[in-house]
Design a protein that fits this description.
The protein is of the alpha/beta class. The chain is 36% helix and 22% strand. A hairpin with a 2-residue loop joins strand 10 and strand 11.
Length: 417
């Protein structure tokens, strides 16, 4: 296995005699596919096994699923080839390593929300690796750091960039010297295993702030239109003979009473999802609110007798979902991580896997109005106006098109905007 100079520095920074050996922590940030995760995880496990015996360590990600996918599944087979004895206990979310007469236990944690801090509270750790740390709440990260009280313990962080107002950027990267942390910034050039063709594919996948963050590796503010790359050249007509040509149909829905309700009809053909028709109702314009029953009837007209696999609905619309189920529709709660969903939607639109057909006027209108807005905490936000078709398009992209279609945004979940 060949490593770049920067990866070698990550692998060796903790070793006796290293010029970086006095640091208490390491921070690896930068572009996607830049080789951060593999070398960080491998170095962390080697460090743990070289210096400790019968101690506990933590490997943390946004979710336990992402920890297994990004770290455990990649590293354990490699360690076994190198002579380590690995035993994973999936039901307990841990694995053990044995080598050179030493044995240690590594626990897996997901830091997906504020309640996650309670999961790691009370543990005594000799070290902690936090992968995708910029996606975790501050309370979880600080609790994980506080658990590392064994003499000689160290902290390991890796992430893709977010907004420069992000708490991790302000509190750790900008204060790396104060915190005695080694900060290494990665680009795609630091991954010797990345081919030019793959690099070019990733460069084509992103635009605007997403490009600057995930390709250039910059901590930059999202500004202007959310889908600033979208123009009329990306529009298409509804495919000929769509009723027979489509392989599957879905409907996505952003439900509102005072706010507008938007629904989109999506058909899959040869790996591409087409938004062939839509429904949009603004009660303020029409000066009348509709009932759940009336909206359910509107959805039925939009479906037009087609076999709909499922209706993807705003997860807060409990009464409307109940009405749809009562009428026999298959209903799925939408995945509602806004920033991650926007990134998935942008990648699908840009790659041509998600197509807006002519005639979907309200979607086109909102595409030209949907804008970024920075929150008081410096985090990415979107303006809460002209966003209803945008929300249900995002629901569909995050819940169906980015998961079930031919496109799978693996890098999206690694950094999951």
């Amino acid at each position: 296995m060949y490593f770049s100079p920067k990866q070698w520095r990550v692998l060796r920074w903790w070793q006796p005699g290293s010029p970086d050996g006095d640091f208490d922590a390491i921070i690896c940030d930068g572009a996607v596919r830049s080789g951060k995760t593999l070398c960080t995880g491998l170095s962390f496990l080697y460090w743990a096994m070289r210096g400790f015996h019968h101690k506990s360590f933590a490997l943390c990600g946004k979710t336990i699923v992402s920890v297994r996918r990004n770290l455990v599944q990649e590293l354990l087979p490699l360690l076994e080839e190198l002579g380590f004895v690995c035993e994973e206990q999936k039901t307990k979310n841990l694995f053990t390593l044995e080598s050179g007469g030493r044995k240690n236990t590594f626990y897996l944690f997901g830091g997906k929300d504020e309640g996650s801090a309670a999961l790691i509270q009370g543990m005594t750790l000799a070290g902690c690796l936090l992968d995708e740390v910029a996606l975790m709440p501050r309370s979880f990260v600080e609790q994980a750091c506080a658990r590392c009280s064994v003499p000689g313990s160290r902290l390991w962080f890796s992430c893709n960039p977010e907004s420069p107002g992000h708490w991790f950027y302000r509190e750790w990267i900008q204060k790396a010297e104060e915190r005695n942390a080694l900060h290494l910034h990665f680009t795609m050039d630091d991954n010797p295993g990345l081919s030019q063709a793959v690099r070019e594919r990733y460069e084509r996948m992103f635009e605007g702030a997403f490009y600057r963050r995930f390709v250039l590796g910059e901590w930059t503010t999202a500004q202007g239109l959310v889908y600033d790359f979208f123009d009329d050249s990306m529009l298409q007509d509804v495919p000929e003979d769509a009723e027979n040509a489509m392989e599957r149909w879905y409907i996505s829905c952003d439900y509102g009473t005072v706010n507008p309700t938007s629904m989109g009809l999506w058909g899959l053909r040869r790996g591409v999802w087409y938004r062939t028709a839509e429904f949009y109702y603004d009660s303020k314009i029409h000066r009348r609110q509709k009932t759940d029953q009336e909206y359910a009837a509107d959805l039925e007209r939009l479906a037009g007798g087609r076999e709909i696999q499922a209706v993807i609905v705003d997860p807060s619309a409990a009464s409307f979902m109940l009405e749809l189920r009562r009428r026999g529709w298959r209903v799925r709660k939408a995945v509602n991580d806004v920033i991650s969903g926007i990134r998935t939607t942008a990648q699908l639109l840009k790659s041509g896997k998600l197509v807006i057909c002519r005639g979907c006027g309200d979607t086109l209108r909102e595409l030209g109005l949907y804008r970024w807005a920075q929150g008081e905490d410096g985090q990415d936000r979107v303006c809460k106006a002209d966003d209803h078709a945008m929300d249900e398009m995002r629901y569909f992209a995050a819940t169906v098109a980015g998961r079930e279609g031919a496109f799978f945004a693996g890098c999206v979940e690694r950094s999951s905007f």
